[in-house]
Amino acid sequence: MATPVIDILLSPSSIIPAQQAVLNRIHSDPGIPSAVNTSKSFWLKDPHPTIDKAQSSTLPEKADIAIIGSGITAVSILYHLLDLHSRQSHGEVPDFSIVMLEARSTSSGATGRNGGHILPTGEEYSAMKGLLGKGAAVKLLKFRFAHVQTLLDLADRLGVAEASQARAVQFVSVYHDEHEFHDACASLKEMKKDLPEETKSFKAYEAEAAKKEFGLAYATGAITGPAGALWPYKFTTAILSDICTKYPKHFRLETGTSVQTISIDSNTDAAYPHVLQTNRGPLRAKHIVHATNGYVGHLVPGFRGRVFPLRGQMSAQAPGQTFGFQGTKHSWLINYGDKFDYLTQLPVAPPASHGEMMLGGGIAPASRQGLAEIGVADDSALSADIDVHLSGALSAVFGHGNWGPTQGNSVKYMWTGIMGFSADGFPWVGKLPASLTHRESACTSKVGGCEWAAVGYSGEGMVHAWLCGKALAILIRGEDGKSVEDLRSLEEWFPAQILISDDRVKNSKLPITINKL
Fold first, then answer.
1. What is the CATH number of domain 42-110+233-306+424-456+469-516?
2. Tens-digit pLDDT profile for residues 181-207
3. Residues 226, 76, 510: CA angle, nearest 5 degrees
4. Are 455 and 421 in contact (CB under 8 A)?
């Protein structure tokens, strides 16, 4: 499936040397996330008091499962591993140990830097259906749609809805091009026919109706539907804090602990064949889970050219003085041709938030159509072009009269974050073959133990990550002879296109030179 990144690389207006530079970065080692000089994210302004920085006096020597990363994917995997065990053992304490390794502070990567949207618009449905067929396209869309209610229900059930500002909203996908709006309406019509129950509340608005209903200045139309929004960092850290309290003997969170290399040494301790060399010493593990998204190519070199970093830019801005508060009602997708911005408004809930507009995107006006951001794993710097766009976009989108003036500095925060983009357009979830790890697989040993990954959400982590984490937890438990019933039902709800397979490994890698793209 084509991705926006591929479209940019193939654009006739792109300069060949710049395109080749992008491919060079895509095939390079993304490195380890830097713990210094990162841009300051609004989401991280109030660090969690107990687990933002959590580190044992000495690194554990062994773990049954080592999870690398501490964002929403890692937390989902952890949560579901423990939940699966609890259900299967009728509440007995876990019979396995888990260590979570984070190079920086807890959830400070993409989860602490994204847009906070749970936004499955379904705009790709026609393209999916044409490529994969109706059945597969419907399954993929249902999987994405399921994240809205799953995350909102979970936040409520765990008692973290208020703290994480989890809320149901209506997305408004705004168009500024008549042809693009026409194509979107055609896709919506097809989607409504094939998924009538899931899309019954979706609606299209022509230009004048959209402008009047949503206070827009230049819209050629809009499409609306159900969505959600939350404060991702507060969501994941609340869950992690609870798990740390409940399972102090079975779970350890180790921040400031970067994994530098992985090797196999089954001779010394066959039960824990993987050796993770960290900046604090070695850790041996039975299973390793890679939940590092855009950085996965560092420890899994076979992902280079298949999953690669892309730097996105976000802002937190004060609303204009005449803009009516919509934080508990709407979120927005603002389309400009084949590029878009994304926007939510936070609740008025001092001291945490004061109705800030959380606007991200800006690739449309970026230098060389955004080529400079592709393959970049450094979240310390900002793009001046994107800054200029994001800083002035909202008054134009909503109209200067509807927006009004702002008091003082309207842009409170501007930061970047690293996404993991997939060359074939789908996430990668499952057991890692040696063709990706480039090391002997421990799966063939008598005691088992494998490497796993859930990565490559292509900028749509909030409608992929949580249930991808659940699926991976089921697969890991299944490898150890547990969760058999869940394994059988997995194929009923989990899209096959997301699973890691030999065919995907063979057919998904981007070429090294631009003339072969």
1. 3.50.50.60
2. 999 999 999 999 999 999 999 999 999
3. 85
4. no
